[in-house]
Design goal:
alpha/beta, Glutaredoxin, 5-stranded mixed sheet, two-stranded antiparallel sheet, 7 strands, 39% helix, globular, peroxidase activity, signal, peroxidase, oxidoreductase
Length: 183
């Protein structure tokens, strides 16, 4: 009799896990390794229901100073729930092969506090799942610092080229639209 009562919480937890997986938008299924950390980021657990800015980055790109603008954007809107995810990539041949060097550029040189992952493929058949879905919903990144604004349901509502700075009024408008979206 006692064994049956112990099984009930386990079953409830299993069903809750299934319900959470069903609630997770396709965009956020899976995980990515955090930059210079031993942990992985469960994208659904960490970001489901939150407005996002996803950007592919490169430490040695001429657009790297946009890290400062992305950090300012994150600081301005994080209390309203905005998350920024930086995904370094060497797809355009401007990222270090050394994660420590990438981390130094992001964290030391630019003071980034938003989420950064280890370098990933962001284009083509080898692209990480996150970027495959971003490409399906809009387009693949055409260069480094291509920015996607994602609503609380995991849908891309706008994407911006590398030339669009993080303080651009149209970009800010898209971020505020994502912040206003319903989960």
């Amino acid at each position: 009799m006692q064994m049956r009562w112990l099984a009930v919480p386990a079953l409830l937890m299993a069903f809750a896990g299934l319900a959470q997986a069903a609630d997770c938008p396709e965009l956020l299924q899976g995980s990515l390794p955090k930059l210079r950390a031993k942990e992985s980021i469960d994208l659904c657990q960490r970001f489901a229901g939150k407005p996002l800015v996803v950007v592919n980055t490169a430490s040695f790109c001429g657009f790297a100073p946009q890290f400062k603008g992305l950090e300012a954007l994150y600081q301005r809107y994080k209390d309203q729930g905005l998350e920024v995810i930086g995904v370094p990539s060497n797809d355009f041949k401007q990222e270090s092969k050394d994660g420590a060097e990438t981390a130094k550029v992001c964290y030391v040189n630019y003071g980034v506090t938003f989420t950064m992952t280890e370098p990933q493929k962001v284009r083509g058949d080898d692209a990480t799942h996150l970027f495959k879905i971003l490409a399906e919903q809009s387009s693949a990144p055409k260069w480094n610092f291509y920015k996607y604004v994602v609503d609380r349901k995991g849908k891309v509502i706008a994407n911006f080229s590398s030339l669009t700075k993080p303080d651009n009024p149209e970009f800010i408008e898209a971020v505020e639209k994502a912040l206003a979206s319903k989960p």
